[in-house]
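Students often ask why we bother encoding 3D structure as a string. The short answer is that it lets us treat folding as translation between two languages. Here is a chain of 350 residues written in the first language.
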Amino acid sequence: MAWSLYPKLRGLLFSLDPETAHDLSLKGLDYLSRFLPLALPPARPTHPEPVTLAGLVFPNRVGLAAGLDKNAQHIDSLARFGFGFMEVGTVTPRPQPGNPRPRLFRLESAEGLINRFGFNNLGLEAFVRQIKNSHWVRDRRGILGLNIGKNASTSIDRAEDDYLEGLRGVYEWADYITINISSPNTKNLRDLQGPEALEKLLTALVLEAGRLRQHHQKRVPLFVKIAPDLDERQVEEMAKTIARLELDGVIATNTTLDRASVVRLAHADEAGGLSGAPLKERAKNVLAQLRARLPREVVLIGAGGIMSAQDGLDRRAAGADLLQLYTGLIYHGPQLVLDLAKSLCVDQRA
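And here it is in the second language, the structure alphabet:
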């Protein structure tokens, strides 16, 4: 019943600046969760259909993508949407403001967003503190992924240092860790997807994860999040490296720089990454290419342009083990989580 109100609220939210609307929505959700608990459904997975991947038991296949809760400040509230898992961040070792506002733009007729946030976050120390304070985390109610990146002030040749610091800082609290090398909004970050740079970075992180595994007496799977703007040869090279280093999974994909599907729309020329429905086919194609080239045990998380239950089924057919939402939530609200989880349950039993 509470989720059915979102279509009515959306008009009001869409009358506001997008980033202001985003912040108000999360604060409002926190208020409802804290003071009006009966207005929200219980914090448990919607349509549970457990699946074991990378040694983790996911209550259902629908997750929250990183970026919506950058500082891990809203975990307890967002958990009420019924996700099977959630991912928060991207966090960098040191706090940074990101790019100047405005930095978020709606392409409403196309159900798209363009953002150029630039990893704005409060830094690793504050991020971990928020996670420690989460009831959902302390009570072990679900799977939590932590997404790490590098500071804008760190040169690309020293990026490994930031990722190692992030890995060490979040390891104890993560169910899985995502290495974000695909945001288009940090200068030269996508250079880390090149064969030599990728091999060097991932090798260092895999070795450090092995040491942390011994120290903490727990194994935390490593995922890497890649861009949709890769040609077939680049995808093949990345798949070889990921398989060789035995990473646990890939998130496909981040936002795109391509504007072919939104030409002449308002804000289409804004700098940043495009998400939502215009990203759908590009993200699905990259995921399908990865599925054809990676061992079956490598987990694939489909992200980008999942706006309906049918989109979720299509992404599963393309090879996704799990799904993540962000822009779809902005346009369709929490009901989308329920619709996806229900349709994937039915599909899995078929």
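Translate back mentally: Residues 225 and 251 are 5 Å apart (CA to CA). Keep this in mind for the problem set.
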